Amino acid sequence: MTIYDLHAHSDFSDGVLPPRAVVARAKLCGVDVLALTDHDSVAGLDAACDAAREHDLTLIPGVEISVTWEKYLVHILGLCVDRTNATLLHGLARLQAIREQRAQQMAQRLEKHGMPDALAGAFRHAPNGLVTRRHFALYMVELGIAPTLPKIFERYLRPSKPGYVATQWVALQEAVSWINAAGGVAVVAHPQRYDMSATTRRRLMEQFSAHGGAGIEVVCGDSAPDVVHSSAALAERFGLLASVGSDFHDPASRWTGLGQLTALPPNVQPIWSHARFRG
């Protein structure tokens, strides 16, 4: 049986390992087909593709795009994208500029709360230059402000907390159009994690499908059976293909082990049945 893991991060966004190490670890974990899906960046894909050839593993070029839909931050995966596509690269450059501005604003807020050199500290933990909240959190743990990343997020980096900056990302339709322009397959990541009602979630899926979206992540990380069931029901209702992914960031996390995923329910059609996975 082929083992798929279609959602993983490297240190080109907020993951811990370089792309080559993510691929090597995936191979050790028994993964046959891996998608590297860094936040708003495809910069790690060349190294990941090289490593995949060395380890006899199939690498799916991917990306995870930040979207503002209504009042919610939603993540849209692009799988099987052409990482050289001009439309996609132009869009990702916009998002990276937004991220840079957000990082500066976060640093200013955190410095007002007694955290010196916050931006420089975050950059020390971001070897490839894309700064995320996690990088600020790592610096704050280093300063001894709190002992763990979850504590830092809880106290400083979540909505309404001192270091949080509300951000306007790109529209849902834009993100899907970039992925489709790059010959990719658009997938809603971890749909049950968004703090929205079931009615709102259905409206999201309806609009996503209408804009040309193709799939939904039915299994993500250690998804509980009720979460898998709810996501599978959305896939059926809106005619979407079902994806699976660990959302891997850190080998120290037992919740997001590469390839450690439950099987898809039998009532959904897997995303790898899409023609792009056969091309």
Question: Which keywords apply here?
Answer:
single chain, seven-stranded mixed β-sheet, 7 strands, 15% strand, globular
Oligomeric form of this entry? single chain
Low-confidence stretches: none
Separation of termini? 20 Å
Structural class: alpha/beta
Number of helices: 9
Which radius of gyration do the C-alpha atoms yield? Answer: 18 Å
Series of H and E elements: EHEHEEHHHHHEHEHE
Specify the biggest β-sheet: 7 strands, mixed
- The count of DSSP E runs of length 2 or more, i.e. the number of strands, is 7
Average pLDDT for all residues: 95
Walk me through the topology:
Layout: E1 4-5, H1 19-28, E2 33-36, H2 45-54, E3 58-69, E4 72-79, H3 86-112, H4 118-124, H5 133-143, H6 149-157, H7 172-181, E5 185-188, H8 198-210, E6 215-220, H9 225-238, E7 241-245
Parallel strand pairs: 1-2, 2-3, 5-6, 6-7
Antiparallel strand pairs: 3-4, 4-5
